[in-house]
Design brief:
Layout lengths: L2 H4 L7 H28 L6 H28 L2 E8 L3 E8 L2 E8 H27 L1
Antiparallel strand pairs: 1-2, 2-3
Helix pairs in contact: 2-3, 2-4, 3-4
Length: about 130
């Protein structure tokens, strides 16, 4: 019996909360990568082309992940809507299976999670490069 069946669908599962968190964070990652790529374009670094390719790779993965998360959350009847932000917390409203919940994340948590996700994307890029160089 799944968690959804056990709790009658009244609560978000841990997996769904993780998907919501990732869906909220991914646009921030895309913005950070875009800003970094603009800085690189204006630099005279000899590796700027390689850095731009790496940035495009990360952006492509972000777009793929956002699409996948939206599809899966839609399938589970979960919708995420931006709510408010203050200096320390970003809030979103989650509508799920006839219920509603306010979901907040502190800036520190967001920074940590974004850093972990960026590390994962760059590790994937490194693996892809390694696989093609051997």
């Amino acid at each position: 019996m799944s968690n959804l069946e056990k709790n009658g669908g009244n609560m978000l599962s841990v997996e769904e909360r993780t998907m919501v968190r990732d869906l909220i964070l991914l646009p921030y990652i895309d913005t950070m990568v875009s800003k970094s790529m603009k800085e690189i374009q204006n630099s005279s670094n000899v590796l700027s082309r390689a850095y731009l390719l790496a940035g495009r790779y990360v952006q492509k993965r972000v777009v793929q992940d956002v699409y996948r998360l939206r599809q899966e959350l839609k399938r589970r009847n979960v919708k995420v809507i931006e709510d408010t932000q203050d200096d320390f917390i970003t809030y979103n409203i989650i509508h799920f299976r006839g219920y509603q919940e306010r979901f907040g994340m502190t800036r520190d948590v967001m920074r940590t999670e974004i850093s972990l996700r960026l590390t994962s994307y760059t590790a994937d890029l490194g693996s892809t490069l390694q696989d093609n160089l051997i």
